[in-house]
């Protein structure tokens, strides 16, 4: 496979090689593909999460948020659950 880079992309790769960040041009392509694969994986996970949320709402499992106080309460609940999860991960015993 042959790939044509723009002048700016070529300069970017050359700079990375000269600085020691990359060993050769192929490393730049491999890293770019790796990052692209990870981004696509996260995108697919997000789409699956949206699908699960939509299915949950269709089953009537959602909750309607209409007032600013309800938004604040939901944000506080999420924050507390996140802090509890972090604490559990840091202290697994």
Order of helices and strands: HHH
State the helical fraction: over 70%
The counted number of beta strands is 0
Q: In terms of structural class, how would the helical and strand content be classed?
A: mainly alpha
Radius of gyration, CA atoms, in whole angstroms: 22 Å
What is the structure about, briefly put?
This protein has 93 residues and is an all-alpha fold. It has three helices and no strands.
What keywords describe this structure?
mainly alpha; 3 helices; 0% strand; 93 residues; 74% helix
Overview of this protein structure:
The structure is a single chain. The protein is built from three helices and no strands. It starts with 6 loop residues before the first helix and ends with a helix. It is elongated, with a radius of gyration of 22 Å. The protein has 93 residues and is mainly α. The model has no long low-confidence stretch (mean pLDDT 94). It has two domains: 1-62, no CATH class; 65-93.
Topology:
Elements: H1 7-18, H2 25-58, H3 68-90
